[in-house]
Amino acid sequence: xxxxxxxxxxxxxxxxxxxxxxxxxxxxxxxxxxxxxxxxxxxxxxxxxxxxxxxxxxxxxxxxxxxxxxxxxxxxxxxxxxxxxxxxxxxxxxxxxxxxxxxxxxxxxxxxxxxxxxxxxxxxxxxxxxxxxxxxxxxxxxxxxxxxxxxxxxxxxxxxxxxxxxxxxxxxxxxxxxxxxxxxxxxxxxxxxxxxxxxxxxxxxxxxxxxxxxxxxxxxxxxxxxxxxxxxxxxxxxxxxxxxxxxxxxxxxxxxxxxxxxxxxxxxxxxxxxxxxxxxxxxxxxxxxxxxxxxxxxxxxxxxxxxxxxxxxxxxxxxxxxxxxxxxxxxxxxxxxxxxxxxxxxxxxxxxxxxxxxxxxxxxxxxxxxxxxxxxxxxxxxxxxxxxxxxxxxxxxxxxxxxxxxxxxxxxxxxxxxxxxx
Length: 422
Hints:
Blueprint: H1 4-9, H2 11-21, H3 29-62, H4 66-102, E1 118-123, H5 136-142, E2 146-147, H6 148-155, E3 161-162, H7 165-184, E4 188-189, E5 195-197, H8 198-204, E6 221-223, H9 228-232, E7 238-241, E8 247-256, E9 275-285, H10 290-308, E10 312-316, E11 328-336, E12 341-350, H11 354-359, E13 361-364, E14 370-372, E15 374-382, H12 383-393, E16 401-402, E17 416-417
Parallel strand pairs: 4-8, 7-13
Antiparallel strand pairs: 1-10, 2-3, 5-6, 8-9, 9-15, 10-11, 11-12, 12-15, 13-14, 16-17
């Protein structure tokens, strides 16, 4: 959520926000300003009424004259009715203001001056075993590593059953990623709920805008579209001591998304599904450290790809593609030789204090002043999409899969995995 005081009172910030998020036409601003000013004026009036109430209470206590005390009581009753009415109006204005603010995206980081995405680096340290590998869907179906028919029979389209070596590699990837991020990068591993309530999704920034993309259950529960939701809510309505920062969390979860209206080459097979697995990185830190923290999260995510010897590139998203909650984002993409194009495997974002304002997540300095935290997240990595790349780069001409060296200890020390149908 945006800082409404800054939006109203800082014309330079407001103009930057209008130019970068609304193409210069921030049409909602006049209404926001009117709501803000009306609430501000009512707060001033109600505070004056409360001062009158305190004065009347003091006069009542100091005077013993029955007639005067009766007059004080009558005036206090009339004054209290005014306070109740003002409070109702303030509450209605506050709710209306919050509703409008919840619909506004985050402000874009001043360093993001470009409109379109920009490639900032590439790493080419790996080639496929076969010169022209089959795409993962063809390879997985041909050698019985992936069963789409069985998944469709039990769940409909947008699902897959991983079998034998593919299932083992998926599990190995999750373990390898978690071990790397906990042992080498200093994250605390959490096991989190896969179902959260509406308020958690609103606090994270996905609701109300993306409510149609999430699977709804009964009892105000929703399936998580990303573990970012669960991790972001770890410090909801909490004030941390600055000395404990940064808080670094990692978790491995399934994710559930409706993904309606998604088509194209990079949605085939297991690339884009209603259910997929991901290792998620999340950090709470101070404003002065959030820029450097984003760079470190990107480096940590890329370390997985380097270890697996999978070629990748890093994109810095431009203003046009930047997500709703992010003020700056890097996407990490793996190159798929079968399709001769890149596929996103991680998105790492600095959300500034946007989520923290919704979550009321703060930290306190040694001198006692409280400030909103900055939140950052990144996939470390999307497991299914990493598996897609492994099936392409490590397939053999005979339908086997060479196990990447760093995964072998998680695969019973096997160097080559074969289909159970061979």
